[in-house]
Design brief:
Blueprint: E1 3-7, H1 15-28, E2 35-40, H2 43-49, E3 55-59, H3 77-89, E4 93-96, H4 114-122, E5 126-131, H5 139-149, E6 154-157, H6 160-169, E7 178-179, H7 192-201, E8 211-214, H8 227-245, E9 249-251, H9 264-273, E10 280-282, H10 290-298, E11 303-305, H11 308-315, E12 321-325, H12 328-338, H13 344-347, E13 348-350, H14 351-356, H15 360-365, H16 369-399
Helix pairs in contact: 7-10, 8-9, 10-11, 11-12
Length: 400
């Protein structure tokens, strides 16, 4: 019975993390008797979020986050070490996802290498798929990643920006780095009936066209902008979207974090509270999962998102999406998805530049969605095929 340990998962409180974990677990457990064990900081929350995906969720014994300490079972250090050893003893593959953990942005890259290092020492196959890598600013962090990644049985990246960084900056042979796509491109959306129910619950009745804005309360931690300036810019964008497009606005808080600094619901409510005379609807119902958000994002006329996986939820549905981001991963994924015919400035804005540019809201509101949709339709089958190819590679590893 093949047993896969899935690492790189923080918490499904982020619907982007849920999208990764659900896509991989659902696809990999279609093989007979295959089990996927998800190592996470919030095992009870994730077990509920991933219900029906075939995943077993347990507290990660290799990475212990103090900020989620209350979400994990209490255990001694010895018990944690023994649990880690047992997991590896029965593992047939350690599979790392996580999207963009391996960068200096968050300071967690080296800790998420521990399980891969231990598995490699024991001869257990290891793989990283759908990654965004770098940039690293700490030489020690760079060396640690390079040492582990050079011993992987499989390494794939989700955009050409990361592939170039690995080959041109870190010196990886081109043949060792496979270009793929984010696993969340394979996420199955909830039903159209579920979308109607969710939209009706927040006051958007019928089948009227709408646009979506996905704010990130945590993005200011990785930029020079203040929370107040960020809120002002997003409020200006929401108001401009209504004035220009005359479409109701659905705010999609993609991260329902138990830590206030990263809880998008708080920011979404603040934006809506500033626009009492504008048709703004906050989709923050408890229990709203990644598949629910994907079907709502997929039904929009346009999605402007500060969360990358919300952008992917729209793009993978054929819906035009643009990103406001803080790192190369945003530009990389959006540029690869649309292709070179679409100018990068049309589909990605740095969050600091967006916040300080008074013309940015008008430019985003007036985007030619028909043009974006036409390019997306032609590109999407190839992008989805790249993501599916990763699953085939993982299955081949299990058989080897």
């Amino acid at each position: 019975m093949p047993n896969i340990l899935l690492t790189g998962i923080t918490s499904c409180e982020s619907r982007g993390v849920e999208a990764l974990a659900r896509s991989l677990a659902t696809e990999l457990t279609t093989a007979p008797d295959t089990t996927v064990t998800v190592l996470t900081q919030t095992p009870d929350i994730d077990a509920e979020a991933l219900r029906g995906a075939g995943a077993n969720c347990i507290a990660d014994p290799f990475v212990v986050s103090r900020s989620w300490a209350t979400m994990r079972p209490v255990e001694t250090e010895q018990h944690r070490r023994e649990r880690a050893a047992r997991l590896l003893q029965h593992a047939d593959l350690v599979l790392a996802t996580g999207g963009d953990l391996h960068t200096s942005d968050y300071g967690v890259s080296t800790s998420y290498l521990a399980l891969l290092d231990r598995a490699q020492h024991l001869g257990v196959p290891t793989a990283m798929i759908g990654q965004s890598i770098g940039p690293f600013t700490d030489p020690a962090e760079t060396a640690a990643f390079t040492a582990t990644a050079s011993r992987l049985d499989l390494l794939t990246v989700r955009e050409t920006t990361s592939r170039s960084y690995l080959t041109d900056q870190l010196g990886f042979p081109a043949a060792r780095v496979v270009l793929s796509a984010d696993p969340a491109f394979l996420l199955q959306p909830s039903s159209p009936q579920r979308a109607e129910q969710l939209l009706d619950d927040v006051g958007l009745a019928g089948h009227q066209p709408y646009v979506c804005l996905v704010p990130s309360r945590g993005v200011t931690r990785y930029s020079t902008i203040s929370d107040a300036d960020h809120l002002d810019a997003l409020t200006r964008l929401a108001d401009t979207m209504w004035r220009v497009r005359r479409r109701p606005l659905v705010l999609v808080p993609h991260c329902h974090d138990s830590r206030a600094h990263n809880d998008d619901r708080i920011l979404a409510r603040e934006i809506a509270g500033r626009l009492p005379d504008t048709p703004v609807h906050v989709l923050d119902r408890d229990g709203t999962g990644a598949g629910d958000y994907k079907v709502v994002l997929g039904g929009a006329e346009l999605v402007v998102s500060e969360r990358l996986h919300a952008s992917i939820g729209a793009l993978s549905s054929g819906t035009p999406a643009v990103a406001i981001g803080h790192s190369p991963k945003f530009h990389g994924v959006l540029a690869d998805t649309y292709g070179p015919a679409i100018p990068a400035t049309d589909i990605h804005r740095d969050v600091a530049a967006f916040t300080t540019d008074p013309a940015a809201a008008e430019q985003l509101a007036r985007l030619d969605t028909a043009k974006l949709r036409d390019h997306l339709v032609t590109r999407l089958p190839a992008i989805t095929a790249l993501a599916a190819a990763d699953l085939a590679r993982v299955r081949a590893l299990l058989k080897s």
